[in-house]
Amino acid sequence: MVLLDPAFAFLYQLGDAFAFLVLAACGLAVVFGMMGVINLAHGEFIMCGAYVTVATTRAGLPLPLGILAGALVAGAIGMVLERLVIRHLYGRPLDTIVATWGVSLAATQGMLILLGSSMPGVGTPLGSFSLGSYSYSTYRVVLMLAALAVLAGLYLAFNATRFGTLARATIQVPHMAEALGVDTRKVYALTFGIGAALAGLTGGLYAPTMTIVPTMGTTFIMEAFVTVVVGGADIFLGTAPAALVLGAVRAVLTSWQGQLFGQIGLLVAVILVIRVLPRGISGLILRERA
């Protein structure tokens, strides 16, 4: 049991880091990896999901339904944003950076003006369990399972459904898809909405574990971008391995020297991986397959 305690503690920390990176990155991977849109407002969609989750839960809705409401509201706002702003900027990545950065600033300041600097939270549910001399949050285990479920759901949505086929065709060869009768504008809007909804889901899932403030999206945005960049263009081949590698680095260094060294090690690992694998982990996997 003496040896089991630190081993389980490390695995728990690894699973927690993996879940955080996967959930933070999945929505961005859909928008950036599949659509080529660099969405700097990704953190604000996460913040939106958290605020809606907390508001609906405090109004009497069960937490799972509050999380679902947060995802749906973020997805709806994402589709509106795609229609009004993003749709006119496809193929212009630098312009999407400026536009979504502006949306990010407006959303953060707007929430600060409307709702103040913070919002009362809902508390972490499910309590904790003990193993040996350590105590662990049960809800963190739920987050790990949620990350795996999101990965599986995304894979099925984009590989086993008609919408997934149309989405991949539209994103890869949009002119041919449109010539065959596909409503590419609708596909783009739905795909961007899915990315925004995944961000809102992340915010809702992590809302019980965090302080609810307008700038909370910045907690996720750096890890989301580095995970997507390390994973590469293919979200199904890249996101999970990238999250596992970066999560392992972060867990090892955090358990050794603390949270700050974990963050530094994460960034150093990203620099090394990009230097060795400029197309990310998925690029290496696809090259090996070829």
TrEMBL record:
Molecular function terms, GO-annotated: transmembrane transporter activity
Membrane-spanning intervals of the chain: 17-38, 67-86, 98-119, 139-158, 187-208, 220-248, 260-277
Compartment list: Cell membrane
Main location: membrane
Family matches, as Pfam families: BPD_transp_2 (PF02653)
A biological-process GO annotation: amino acid transport
InterPro entries per UniProt: ABC_transp_permease, BCAA_transport_permease
Gene Ontology cellular component annotations, sorted alphabetically: plasma membrane
Domain of life: Bacteria
Keyword Membrane in record: yes
Membrane topology: Multi-pass membrane protein
Keywords of this entry: Amino-acid transport, Cell membrane, Membrane, Transmembrane, Transmembrane helix, Transport
CDD domains given in the database record: TM_PBP1_LivH_like (cd06582)
Family: Belongs to the binding-protein-dependent transport system permease family. LivHM subfamily.
Name of protein: High-affinity branched-chain amino acid transport system permease protein LivH
